[in-house]
Amino acid sequence: MKRFKKFMKRWLSQIIDIHRLKYAFPNYLRYLRDWKKYSRMEGAEPIRILDTFPQIHDKTMTTSFDIHYFYQDIWAFKRIFESKCAHHIDVGSRIDFIGFLTVITKVTFIDIRPLLANLENFESKRGSILAMPYKKNSIPSISCLHVAEHIGLGRYGDPLDPLGTKKAAKELSRILAPKGNLYFSLPIGKPRLCFNGHRIHSTKQIINYFSSLSVIELSGIDDNGNFIRNIDRKILDSCNYGCGLFWFKKE
Q1: Number of independent structural domains in the chain
Q2: Is the CB of residue 152 less than 8 Å from the CB of residue 135?
Q3: pLDDT in tens, 44-96
Q4: Distance between CA atoms of 103 and 243, rounded to whole angstroms?
Q5: How far apart are CA 27 and CA 55, in angstroms?
Q6: Contacts of 172 (CB under 8 A, 6+ apart)
Q7: Closest to 241 in 3D by CA, of 121, 57, 67
Q8: Does one domain contain both 123 and 197?
Q9: Chain segment 175-207, per-residue pLDDT in tens
């Protein structure tokens, strides 16, 4: 029954946010009460109906954040900063992460959907992780965070390919320069395909995909939201939806 509920939530969430729906009515009542109270306060601006902008789900006890993206971006940023690289290539990672990176180094962002942003130290190129526009052994610093699990599922407009993640790993390995660093992350746990959202891999699968590279660090985020430096592979592999943070080097 629990698994069925999760299944229904995944399908219905594309048209309706089930979690928010149950809070919508009481939250709207609170919104209307606040509107009435505010409009009666001294110095209150006029509230025109056409200008109203209800935000009814933000009164939370704590500040929410995406656990995987939050920790992985900090982890990778620290590694790249400490490497003092002059030019870094990122493949499809989160755009906030890319923006912050431009403060410390020159960044080229590769994606099938270019990032049209006007920033110093920034260049965006249209490209595929399966056919990178670089020569073999040419790039000393690369990141690819929470991307490869999507490759070949068509979610972002890429061609369908059951071997998408494996081919992406091969291409990243190809362009990485000797003594170069690759910062890589994706969901880790009990291997399965959640079409067309993502794949979940085991640590063994990923290390095998990058068999030509050495693992310098394996950190991760477990199912309880804990970021663990140098995590035990058994902890990650036992997760339902953990996140593996791999630092690879081409020796």
Answers
A1: 2
A2: no
A3: 999 999 999 999 999 999 999 999 999 999 999 999 999 999 999 999 999 99
A4: 26
A5: 9
A6: 91, 129, 132, 142, 144, 182, 184, 210
A7: 67
A8: yes
A9: 999 999 999 999 999 999 999 999 999 999 999
Q: Domain containing 30: what range? A: 2-51
Q: Are strands 198-200 and 242-249 parallel, antiparallel or unpaired?
A: unpaired
pTM here?
Answer: 0.91
Q: Is residue 59 part of a domain?
A: no
Q: Is residue 83 situated within a structural domain?
A: yes
Residue 57 contacts residue 118 (beta carbons within 8 Å):
no
Measure the CA–CA gap between 76 and 88, rounded to whole angstroms. 12
**Rounded distance, CA 206 to CA 225, Å?**
21
Give residue for tokens 């593996």.
Answer: 244
Domain membership flag for residue 227: yes
35 — pLDDT class (breaks 50, 70, 90): very high
143: in domain: yes
